[in-house]
Amino acid sequence: MLRIAGLAGNRGRNLMHIADLSPGGAELAVVCTDDGSAPVLSSAADRGIPTEVVERGDDESRADHESRLRARLDDYEVDLVCMDGYMRVLSADLLDDLPTTLNVHPSLLPAFRGEDAHEQALAAGVRTTGCTVHVATEELDAGPIVTQEAVPVHEGDDAETLKRRVLHEAEFKAYPRAVEWFAEDRITVDDDGVTVEGDEAGQFPARRVVSDDRRRTLRYGENPHQDAALYADVASDEASVVHAAQLNEGAKALSYNNYNDADAALDLIREFDEPAAAVIKHTNPAGCATADSLATAYEDALATDAMSAFGGIVALNRPCDAATADAIVESFKEVVVAPGYTDGALDVLSEKEDLRVLDVGSLGDRTTTLSEKPLTGGRLVQERDDWAPTRADLEVVTERDPTDDEIETMLFAWRTLKHVKSNAILFAAGTETVGIGMGQVSRVDAVRLAAMKADEHAEGKDAAGAVMASDAFFPFPDGIEEAAEAGVEAVIQPGGSVNDDDVVAAADEHDMAMAFTGKRCFRHD
C-alpha cells in the first residue's frame, strides 16, 4: 500500500479528496501543516488521519524548520509526499531526503506560474486553463510534469468561479490520477523527467480529453421537465445530424429526441450501398428496405409498420427526389434525413410546416471508429460494430441449405438487425423488413412480437416464407418453434449456445434452413 504524507497550509481539499478516494489503494498516512489554525487539521481528524503541526518560529532558520519537519515525517514511513497549498518552496536538501514530492498548480504549466494563476489566466484572455501535477523542485512551479487536466474559461468568469472549476473539474481528476499511477508503480522519475508506463497513444489511451462546443440550447430533453443542450465536435467532418443544415428554416428546431432518433436513422441507412430507406421510432427501426429506387425502398420500409411509423424519422441514403417526397408527406413524420434533395423534393417537403428537413451532405466513408456511452462517474468506449457477414461467413448447420434468395435476405436482415435494441428479432423478405421484435427481456417474446407485427401491422406482407434474424443465439428451441408457427422458413443467428444441437434439430424438423454467423450484434442503447 502506498503511504502518503500530505503537506497543506490551508483547507487541503485535494488531500482530503485523495483520502476519500484512496486511488490505487493509497493511504494518507499523515497531514502536516505549518499553520496551527489550518482547517485541514479538523478535516483530517474527522477522517481519523494523524496530523502534525510544525510551525516556523520567528527567528528559526529555514534549514532548522525543514529539519524538524523531516523528523516528524520520519515517524510515518511514507512513500510519497503530496503538497496542497503548502505555501513554502522546499529546499533541494529536503527534497533529496524526502520520497518523490508532488505538487498541484492551478494552471497548465509552464503558463501562469505563481500564486495568482487564475488572475493571470483571466488577464491573458485564454479560453482554456487547468491544472498541472508536477514533481516539486527548488524552483517554483517548474518541476517535471506528471499529468495535466484542462478546463474551459467561460465568459463572465472571475477568479473565484475559475478557481472553483479548476479545483473540481481539473485538480480533483489529475491529482488522484497521479497518485494512482504511483500506487501502481507505473511512474519513473529520473534526470530525463517523468515516464508513465501505459500512458501511450492508441485507440484506447490511458487518458481521454474530450472538448465539445455547445451548438444550441434545446427546448427540453427527453421530457419537458428536463433541460438539454446540443454539443458539437467541431473537428468532425463525417456526415452527421449535428452538423446537418436544416433546409426548411421556418420549421421549429429539432428536439433532443429528434436528434437522437435522427442519428440512429442515419446510422442504419449507411449500412447499404443500394438505395435504402428507414423509418425510425425511439431509435428503433419501424421498417427498413432497399430497392431499385428510393421511392420503392421507402414504401417497402413504411409498409412494415405504418402505424408505428407515425411521427417517426425517415432516413435515406440517396438524395431525396420528388417521388419519394410525395410518399413521405402522405403521413405525419417529424424529420427527414438525406444526403441532399432535389428542388422538386424540397418544394413538396416544405409544404409541411412541422416536418424538419436535414441535409447531411455526402455520406462518404465512416471516419468515426469508436462509440461511447456516458455513465455516472465515467463513460464506456468501444469500437463501432461495423461488422456484417458475407456469404463466406455463413456456416450452414441444417440439413437444408438456404436458397440464394434466402441468403440475400439473411445478409440484409443482419445489417438492419444491428440497429434494433436487444433482445432483437427481425423478420425479412427479399430486402425489406416484415416484422421487428425489439427490446424484449426474453428472446422468445421478441419472436412473438416480430410475428405479431408481421401479421397485424405489416401492409401487403406477412411472416409466411420470411427469414428470421436473431442478434444472439437461441438458448432453447422454443424460439424456433414460435418462428415456424409464424411461417418462417430460414434463420440467421450467431450460434454458440450449449443447446445448439437441439435448436438445429428443431429447425430440421420444420425443414428450415439455418446459418450461423459466429458473431452476435447486441445493441443495448
Question: What keyword list fits this structure?
Answer:
525 residues; 3 domains; Cytidine Deaminase, domain 2; elongated; single chain; alpha/beta; Rossmann fold
Task: Map the helices and strands.
Elements lengths: L2 E6 L4 H9 L5 E7 L6 H7 L4 E3 L8 H13 L5 E5 L7 H6 L3 E5 L11 H8 L3 E8 L9 E8 L6 H25 L3 E4 L2 E4 L16 E6 L9 E5 L12 E2 L9 H14 L6 E6 L2 E7 L3 H11 L7 E5 L5 H7 L4 E6 L4 H7 L6 E4 L10 E6 L2 E6 L11 E2 L7 H14 L7 E5 L2 E6 L5 H14 L10 E4 L7 H9 L3 E4 L6 H10 L3 E4 L9
Parallel strand pairs: 1-2, 1-4, 2-3, 4-5, 15-16, 16-17, 23-24, 24-25
Antiparallel strand pairs: 5-6, 6-7, 8-9, 10-11, 12-17, 13-14, 13-15, 18-19, 20-25, 21-22, 21-23
Quaternary state reads single chain
The total domain count is: 3
> What would you call the structural class?
alpha/beta
Q: Strand order across the biggest sheet?
A: 3-2-1-4-5-6-7
Q: Cα distance, first to last residue?
A: 39 Å
CATH class of the largest domain: Alpha Beta
CATH superfamily of the largest domain: Formyl transferase, N-terminal domain
**Overall residue-averaged pLDDT value:** 94
Helix content: 25-40%
Radius of gyration: 31 Å
Q: Which architecture of the largest domain would the CATH scheme give at its second level?
A: 3-Layer(aba) Sandwich
The name CATH uses for the topology of the largest domain is: Rossmann fold
Biggest beta-sheet profile: 7 strands, mixed
What would the principal axes of the Cα set say about the shape? elongated
- Which regions have little confidence, pLDDT < 50, spanning 5+ residues? none
Q: Please state roughly what percent of the residues sit in beta strands, choosing from under 5%, 5-15%, 15-25%, 25-35%, 35-45% or over 45%.
A: 15-25%
The total of helices stands at 14
Number of separate strands: 25
